[in-house]
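User: Can you recover a sequence for this backbone? Please restate the input before giving your answer.

Assistant: Of course. Working from this structure:
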């Protein structure tokens, strides 16, 4: 993405105004991290992250204004003449100095301002960039949120993923995406699932067709995205296959080298998949809090055996 896309999508939310350097709006944003260049303004440039958007707040601005015009020109040129430089944003609606206008106009590097405070703006912008620049993968699945837990439902076509999701929605849970789920790796090892913009809130049910979850069940039934915390794998019941009946095993699915707990649910006539997904979700929440029922049972059995 580039600065132009940031301005187009978030000018209203972030209250952004372009002050200078319009010709550089096509400069690419390659990293979600931001930087406050106070130490560089003071003259130290070793290991300076030129590739980051630079945020100038009240502290940096006050120090910079104390410098003479020529010194401002010199410092700003050192920071923003690098070919990796992306742009700079002034917070609190700070008024750009004459040196700023000249440097950013000459270098064709975008200079913007926002009325937001530095801490608030940096948090919001970093979150936005993290989502936009995250590595992504599209898979055939259904994404839901059950009891506040992000649940990715996978399985072969026609196994019952969409029917399970619609039953979960009817039971008060959240729908995120059907058919194609876009998985993004955000903030280190966090996976987030969302739907495609073109098919957002739509679901295909064989025999009925395309339905709009938002229109049918209301705004409270949908989420734009959800953290992926549990994978439910639906597969056709095989009578000769041995399934884990105790729950002592801890299988997982892996995306982008991130391991997510996985539960394999055999599908057979008469099984209520929505109830099983709800139960698996509640059980996973207990595990997240340190309560592992199968393991606790094994410990009690071992103690009983040792007493014999």
């Amino acid at each position: 993405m580039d600065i132009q896309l940031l301005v187009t999508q978030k000018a209203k939310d972030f209250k952004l105004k372009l002050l200078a350097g319009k010709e550089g709006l096509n400069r690419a944003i390659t990293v979600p991290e931001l930087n406050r260049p106070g130490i560089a303004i003071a003259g130290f440039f070793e290991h300076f992250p030129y590739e980051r958007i630079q945020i100038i707040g009240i502290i940096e601005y006050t120090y910079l204004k104390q410098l003479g015009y020529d010194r401002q020109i010199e410092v700003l040129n050192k920071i923003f003449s690098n070919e990796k430089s992306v742009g700079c944003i002034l917070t609190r609606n700070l008024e750009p100095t004459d040196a700023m206008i000249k440097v950013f106009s000459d270098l064709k590097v975008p200079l913007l301002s926002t009325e937001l405070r530095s801490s608030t703006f940096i948090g919001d912008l970093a979150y936005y960039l993290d989502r936009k620049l995250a590595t992504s993968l599209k898979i055939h699945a259904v994404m839901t949120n059950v009891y506040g837990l992000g649940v990715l439902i996978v399985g072969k076509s026609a196994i019952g993923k969409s029917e399970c999701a619609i039953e979960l929605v009817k039971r008060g849970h959240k729908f995120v995406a059907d058919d194609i789920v876009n998985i993004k790796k955000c903030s280190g090892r966090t996976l987030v699932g969302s739907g495609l913009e073109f098919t957002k809130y739509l679901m295909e049910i064989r025999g009925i067709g395309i339905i709009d979850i938002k229109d049918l069940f209301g705004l409270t039934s949908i989420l734009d995205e959800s953290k992926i915390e549990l994978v439910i794998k639906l597969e056709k019941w095989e009578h000769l296959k041995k399934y884990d009946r105790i729950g002592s095993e801890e299988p997982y699915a892996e995306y982008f080298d991130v391991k997510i707990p996985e539960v394999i649910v055999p599908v057979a006539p008469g099984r209520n998949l929505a109830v099983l997904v709800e139960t698996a979700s509640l059980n996973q929440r207990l595990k997240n809090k340190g309560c592992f029922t199968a393991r606790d049972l094994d410990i009690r059995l071992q103690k009983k055996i040792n007493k014999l």
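That completes the design. The domain at 3-133 is CATH 3.40.1390.20 (Udp-n-acetylmuramoylalanyl-d-glutamate--2,6- Diaminopimelate Ligase; Chain: A, domain 1).
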